[in-house]
Amino acid sequence: MTRPTVADDVLSVLREAGATTVFGLPGVHNLAFFGPGPGSPVVVRHEQAATAAADGWARRTGRLGAAVVTTGPGATNALTGLGEAAAAGSPVVLVASEIPQRLRRPGRLRGVLHESRDQAAVVAPLVKAVRTPRTAADTARAVREAVVVALTEPRGPVYVDVPADLLGAPAEVPPCTVEDGAPARPDDDALAAVTAVLAAGTVVVWAGRGAVDAAGPVSALARRLGAPLVTAFGARGLDGALDAPPHEPEVAALVGSADVLLAVGGGLDGMDTRNWTMPRPPVLVTVDPAPPADPPEWTPDHALTGDVAVIAGELAAGLPGRGPWWDTGVAGRVRARLRDDPATADAWTLVEAVESVTATGAAVVCDMAVAGYWTGGYARVSGPRGLAYPVGWGTLGFGLPAALGVAATGTPTLAVVGDGGLAMAVGELATLVQEQLPVTVLVVDDGGYGMLRYDQDRAGAPHAGVDLHTPDLVALAHAYGLDAVDVPIAGLGAAVRDAVGSGRPHLVRLGAALLPPRTTSPRWDDE
Per-residue pLDDT tens for 356-376? Predict the structure, then answer.
């Protein structure tokens, strides 16, 4: 039997940690990761797509996502995906090669292929931790540590680089134990104090991404309190949550009218709170799986840290049940207004088309596009982890490559993108076809950067840099081997249902210019 290599051991550790599909792109320094077997990484067309796909996998599964890339430009190409994963709290491990150790000279940059003075230092500001092993045994330890660090709250990406001449060397796996401590439980006095606060007044429950894996207990706690459940973008799909975002004036007024804001799992970031200008109750209680990495903008009056599901369950057990104190029809009225307003009617047709496939279990991935903003903020999704939306860092070009990772889980996936974002990752259409992933790409083509064009219109400025030449997208999709169709707005729902239902790679093009929703910052103050 052939002895496993360092690269074999790395892939084995990543798979055992939950990344049963690894994404990557081969280069001369990292070919040891790629082989004829079924465990070889899925090959993408750009390294940014590798880390975005790993992020999509992690968001969909809640498990580790992983990518492998080559030295130098391969590593730097992957950075944008790591930054987005960091903003979303996604547990992603990126393993990059480094130049062979036999060619490295300390303190000297000699012009070796792909050489950098300090490759890891380029990556460090965007990740939770960096590991730079330089022996086979150290690599075994480093990748196991990276997995634990990425999956420990607060979750985030970890970077490991390994010299190219180590990857093909025999693996050395010394006995090593990596601690992954259990979350602490709040003391009884802290729980009792919060229970008293919640019992004494009206409450809005605000759920962030840290509530997703505790979806059942968090929803049950909201019902126990008779409280509206408002979700940040990272927690959409929780049972019983309002079907309208807090950026809409009616929902914002509801949030501000309560006595207590109970924020579970974070989500009180700038994009969700209109840069902390939304109305908020006088008392703030937070429940988080771990202390935040940075001081919060809003200081809580009471803060509980630990297993979110356990804490939510204990709070519910200590509270009397009560009926809703709020107008439960508020979200329905917001949705009806948007449906009936001629300015937003086409956008609402898009939302309904998306909902027609999420109702059957399809997952949705949005890009930073006007169509993505409507989908990410308003469309009902299939459940927790049913939506991947890059609103944290705002990565244009995220939609298609992240959809690779979501669909690799076996989930029918709808990627909602604009023509500008699609152009940034259009090569991944080839990946869809080669891997036969069940992805439908819905591209809303407005001939440019529609959101930025809107910004210029509001400022009274002429259009500059926002109008793009866009090719015949249906013909382009056909050239890549996808089924593709061009549809009018009236036929959008049927076309999306047919495409997603086929289980094959599809592209659906809709030519439309949509008004951005109130979830976009230029419209935060619109009445």
Answer: 999 999 999 999 999 999 999
